[in-house]
Amino acid sequence: MRKKNSSIPIKTMTDAFSSGIIIAKASFDEQDLMNLDDARRSHRDDYHSFFLLENGTTEIEIDFQQYTITPYSILYIHPHQVHRIVAMKKVGGSFLGINSEHINPEYLQLLEEMTPLKPLRLSEEIFSILETSVSLCITLSDRKQKQLHQSLLKDSCNTLIGLLTSMYLEGAIPVDKLSRSEIITKTFKAILQRDFLAIKRPAAYAMRLNISTPYLNECVKDVTGYPVSYHIQQRIILEAKRLLYHSDKSVKEIADALGFEDYPYFSRLFSKVTGMSALSFRNKNRD
């Protein structure tokens, strides 16, 4: 029977990792997964998660999308993303969990802009470079009583994060090659990800960017094929789906949590975007 939740469960750093950084190598199999209730149950983390899969396969669900992760793959999960482990088979790899305040601001901004990211498969040669960096981080993590332990651990983990981020960036268009429309769209999406609860009007985003609403709409539509309002609605509805599926809040409580004082308007918006009512979505996905 599904466990009742007043909201989406959040997995936090334990007292044992008060430094705000967890890094380790681990191996798991199907039987081990049965004992990992926190991992099997949909949840958010209050930290950034990086996975490097060296062998085996893992099935993971992130925001209603299921992915199969194979050897020499990396995966980044942002704190706002809801996820769970569905299955694993003879898995071996590394994991880094780190709070936002410990991440180099440049890397943090890039990760915010790129989210959501899918698993990325690398060559064995490139993956081995990352594994070398992981080994150094783990060695420094174990030297808790040494001078400058926290600073060295933080710096080494940021080197690893920089390497991981660069792997994702290799498939992206360099910033200096982006058109003005692409730069504006990228900036709009970053602001949307951060402020969607508070800002829901295209004009407010245009004001943040110091451009006109029609020009913002033109840029975003040229790059993505959809207007600004579409992206705003999609981000709001994703959060609504998360709360409908993973919490037991009423639809009215969810509307309030998402910043909608007009509950009927929120209900109409959800039906318009998804093609079904909020309650129908909840009932369908819990069957």
Name some characteristics of this structure.
287 residues, two-stranded parallel ribbon, alpha+beta, Jelly Rolls, Arc Repressor Mutant, subunit A, six-stranded antiparallel beta sheet
Summarize the structure in short.
49% of the residues lie in helices and 19% in strands. The chain is built from 12 helices and 8 strands.
Walk me through this protein's architecture.
The structure is a single chain. With 287 residues, the protein is of the alpha+beta class. The protein has 2 domains: 160 residues, Sandwich (Jelly Rolls), CATH 2.60.120.280; 110 residues, Arc Repressor Mutant, subunit A (Orthogonal Bundle), CATH 1.10.10.60. 49% of the residues lie in helices and 19% in strands. It contains 12 helices and 8 strands. Strands 2, 4, 5, 6, 7 and 8 form a 6-stranded antiparallel β-sheet that branches. A hairpin with a 2-residue loop joins β4 and β5. α4 runs antiparallel to α5. The radius of gyration is 20 Å and the shape is globular. The N and C termini lie close together (11 Å). The relative contact order is 0.11. The model has no long low-confidence stretch (mean pLDDT 89).
Number of domains: 2
Counting DSSP H or I runs of 4 or more residues, the number of helices is 12
The strand count comes to 8
Instruction: Compute the CA-based radius of gyration.
Output: 20 Å
| Intertermini distance | 11 Å
The CATH topology of the largest domain comes to Jelly Rolls
Strand residue percentage:
15-25%
In the predicted model, the low-confidence regions spanning at least 5 consecutive residues are none
Q: What summary fits the major beta sheet?
A: 6 strands, antiparallel
Helix content: 40-55%
CATH A-level architecture of the largest domain: Sandwich
- At the fourth CATH level, what is the homologous superfamily of the largest domain? Regulatory protein AraC
Q: What form results from the Cα inertia axes? A: globular
CATH class of the largest domain: Mainly Beta
Order of helices and strands: EEHHEEEEEHEHHHHHHHHH
Mean pLDDT: 89
**Global structural class:** alpha+beta
